[in-house]
Each structure stands twice: as C-alpha cells, then as structure tokens.
C-alpha cells in the first residue's frame, strides 16, 4: 500500500492550496482522529534561521487552520536528518510535507538518512507525501541545473517514473524555453517530463491516475509530443 503523493509547482501553506491540502487530510488514513502533519523546511536549510522559522511557522499555522495536528521538525542538515526522535515523528505522521528551497541540498540531506527512511516507510503504509518545488523535484529521476540550461543534472530518488519535474512552470523566464528543449532532446522512448504551474498541484499514486488541482495547469512532455491539463483533468504517469 502506498499513500497519495502531491507535487506542487508553488503555493505551499497558502490559502490557494486549501482545497488540495483538505483533500490530502481527508485521504491520509487518519479516520476518526486529527491527522498528524509534519512540516519539513529541509530544502531551506542553507537559508538561515529566519527563512527556516518562516516556513515552519507557515506550515503549522496552515494545517492547524485546516483541522490537523501539525508540527514543524527542524530537519535542516545531515545531523538533524539522522536524529532518531525526528525520524520517529516522521514515521508516525499521516502527512509528510517538504516545502521548497534548494533541491540538490534537500536530496543530499535526505539521502540515506533516518528521516528519509522513516518517510518512505510511512508513505508505504499509506501516509501522504507532499512536496513543493524542491520537495517535488527529488522524486523524479534527475534534477536539471536551471542555471546551466539543463545541460547538467543531478540524480534524484527515482521514486516516480518522471525524468524531471519542473516547478514554477508558467513563471519561467525566457531562458526556460532552451531548458525545456534541451531536456526534451534527452528524453528516451517512453520517458516523460512534467511541468507544474505555480499555485498548482498534481495529486495521485504510482500506477494510477493523477489529477490536476489548484489554480492553473500541468504539462506533460515526451520527446516528440506535449499536452497540458487544467484543474480537474486527469492523466497517467
């Protein structure tokens, strides 16, 4: 059994995501009690205490308002990612939420850590995994270096059959077009790349249909074709 996955282009902890997060809380397996949510600002671990505290506070306030039992865990580096107490909290959560920041730093911090192992076990038993921007990107096969126009990429966890996921898709500047072209040329037969617009999420499970939720669209690319899906529409990965 695997739980739902929500991948956001942006908008974590904001009212625009109320519909998405209410759906996650209603489908996280916490029947008859308040859902337990852990908020992880790990991707912002290099941004300093002010940024980490801001994301942590926003997450707790947001999910508390939606009726959950929410807690932010200070998992910001390799040491805290291997704290048994943090891992225990994550392992007992119904929703595990990674907010945005630096995807490479998030991947390196989580890789082979107790917290990541606990997150995978919780998801396997039916807990929800939610990731915004960096938190979404780490589930694909690779994470393109935007500054290098996609010529360079770093590996990701390869949990989903997505070559790469591009958040903030509708807000990409002009250099985003060469990036998309470069990444599409690298796609092999059967591989896909997904772009998720800001204030938008795709929600689904492995080997099942995915639904676009939120304000805008999701975009699915193969080497030769592309298609966009609006809120309420479904597609397969």
What can you see in these coordinates?
The protein has about 240 residues and is an alpha/beta fold. It contains 8 helices and 14 strands. Strands 3-2-4-5-1-10-11-14 form an 8-stranded mixed beta sheet, sandwiched between helices. Helix 4 packs parallel to helix 6. The longest helix has 17 residues. It is globular, with a radius of gyration of 17 Å. The model has no long low-confidence stretch (mean pLDDT about 95).
Fill in the keyword field for this structure.
237 residues; alpha/beta; Rossmann fold; 14 strands
Write the layout of secondary structure elements.
Layout: E1 5-8, H1 18-26, E2 36-40, H2 49-65, E3 69-73, H3 78-81, H4 84-91, E4 95-98, H5 103-110, H6 114-124, E5 128-132, H7 134-137, E6 142-144, E7 153-155, E8 164-166, H8 176-186, E9 193-196, E10 200-204, E11 209-214, E12 217-221, E13 226-230, E14 234-236
Parallel strand pairs: 1-5, 2-3, 2-4, 4-5, 8-9
Antiparallel strand pairs: 1-10, 6-7, 9-12, 10-11, 11-14, 12-13
